[in-house]
Amino acid sequence: MAPEETAPTTPRQATVETPAAAPASPVDDDLPLAREAQRAVRVLNPSGSVTMPRPPRRRVFAVANQKGGVGKTTSTVNLAVALALHGNRVMVVDLDPQGNASTGLGVEHGAGTPSVYEAVVEGMPLDEIAVPVEGIPSLYCVPATIDLAGAEVELVSVVAREARLQKSIDAFSGELDYIFIDCPPSLGLLTVNALVAAEEVLIPIQCEYYALEGLGQLLRNIELIKAHLNARLRVSTILLTMYDKRTKLADQVEQEVRGHFSEIVLDAVVPRSVRVSEAPGYGQSIMTYDPGSRGATSYFEAAEEIARRGAKLAARRDGKNQKGGN
Ligand SMILES: Nc1ncnc2c1ncn2[C@@H]1O[C@H](COP(=O)(O)OP(=O)(O)O)[C@@H](O)[C@H]1O
Ligand SMILES: [Mg+2]
After folding, report:
1. What spacing in Å lies between the alpha carbon of 69 and ligand 1's midpoint?
2. Residues lining ligand 1, judged by CB closer than 6 Å?
3. How much is the average pLDDT of 295-322?
4. Is the pLDDT of residue 12 over 80?
5. Which of 15, 95, 323, 325 is the most buried (most CB within 10 A)?
6. Spans of all domains in the chain
7. What is the fold, at CATH topology level, of the domain defined by 51-317?
8. Which ligand minimizes its atom distance to the CA of 250?
9. At residue 230, what are phi and psi to the nearest 5 degrees?
10. Does the pLDDT at position 114 exceed 70?
11. If pLDDT is split at 50, 70 and 90, which confidence band does 29 have?
12. Which one of 63, 66, 73, 74 would you pick to mutate in the ligand 1 pocket, going by the greatest count of ligand atoms within 8 A of its CB?
C-alpha cells in the first residue's frame, strides 16, 4: 500500500486556517510581515521615480580599505544598486582581480571578457567594456577578470601609470551620476589608480577587533596622493559595517569611529546579517535578494544619506547657482 493513501492532513494545512472574522484593517500594518513588505516597497521603488536627489555633477567614489573582508565589495554593490533603483545613473568599476563586485552584480567576468584590465593596461575605451546590470535600470558594471592580477606589475612600465583609470573614466561618453570603484585589499598601483580617478573616498569599517588597524596607513597614502597626484581627493564617507548589536565591542568601535571622524561617518550602520552574505551567491545584491531585510534597509538608508549629503554640499558650494537634482 502506498503511504500517501493514508496520509493525514498535514499540520501545515491545519495552521493556515484563520478565523473567518479576522478584520482586514490598518491593524495589519503592525504585523511584522506587513512592515517587511512596506520596507521592501520602499527599497525597491517600483515606480522608478527619482527618490534620491541626483548630484549636480558626477560623483566618483573610491571604496577603499587595504584590509580584506571589511565590506568594500558588499558596500559598493549595494549602494550602487540602491542609488540606481532610486533614479540615479550609476557605474561600478570592479578593480579587484577577484572580481567579487562583478559576481555580486551577476555580470560575466570569465577569462576573455573585456574588462577593466583592457581599459587600464591597453587603453580600450570603457564604452566598449561597461555592461548593463540585469534587472537594475541605469546601472552599469565594468567587470574585472583574473587578468587584473598581473596589472600591478604590468602597469609599472606604462606611461602615467597612476592615472590610467582616471583617463579611461574621463573618456567615458555615458552620462552618470555616480561611479563606485571597488578597490582591492592593498595599497598598490590599482588602489592608487582608484584614488587618482576619484574625488571622494568611502571607507567601510568593520565593527570588529582591529577595525582601525591600518587605517592610519590608508589615510597617509590618501594625503600623499592629494599632495602629488589629485588635489581634489577627500575622505567624504565612512560606513560602519557588520555591526553585531549583541556585542559590546561593536558599540565600542562605533563610538571610537564616530568620536574620531565625526560627521563623515554615516548615521546608517549595516548590521551583520547572513542574508547579506548569501546574496552574492545568487548574483544579487541584498536590495533585490531580500529587500525587506534589515541589511537592505540599512544600505538603502546609507545611500539616501550619501545622496542627501552630496546635494547639500553641492548647494553650499554653488550657492545661488545651484541647479537642483536633475
Ligand atoms: N553586513 C554583513 N553581514 C554579514 N556578512 C557580510 C556583511 N557584509 C559583508 N559580508 C560578508 O563578508 C565577507 C567580506 O565582505 P566583502 O564585501 O567581500 O569585503 P571586502 O570587499 O572588503 O573584502 C563576504 O563574504 C561578505 O559576503
Ligand atoms: Mg572586495
Report:
1. 6
2. 68-74, 100, 185, 241-242, 270, 272-273, 276-277, 280, 295
3. 83
4. no
5. 95
6. 51-317
7. Rossmann fold (3.40.50)
8. 1
9. -155, 90
10. yes
11. low
12. 74
Residue 1 pLDDT exceeds 50: no
pLDDT band with cut points at 50, 70 and 90 for residue 17: very low
Measured distance CA(172)–CA(85) in Å, rounded: 22
From ligand 1's centre to the CA of 119, what distance in Å? 27
Atom 25 (ligand 1): residue with closest C-alpha?
277
- Give residue 182's pLDDT: 98
The C-alpha cell at 66 is 587595504
- CB under 8 A, 24+ apart: contacts of 291-297: 291/39, 291/40, 291/43, 291/44, 292/36, 292/37, 292/39, 292/40, 292/43, 293/36, 293/39, 295/78, 295/270, 295/271, 296/39, 296/40, 296/43, 296/78, 297/39, 297/42, 297/43
Cα gap 77→105, rounded to integer Å: 7
Half-sphere exposure of residue 314: CA atoms within 13 angstroms, side-chain side: 19
Output DSSP code: residue 136. S
- Do residues 203 and 235 make contact, with C-beta atoms less than 8 angstroms apart? yes
Question: Using 50, 70 and 90 to split pLDDT, how confident is the model at 31?
Answer: confident
Of 48, 50, 42, 59, give the one whose Cα is nearest residue 312.
Answer: 59
Q: What residue owns the CA closest to ligand 1's atom 8?
A: 71
- By alpha-carbon position, which residue is closest to atom 26 of ligand 1? 277
Place of cell 537642483: 324
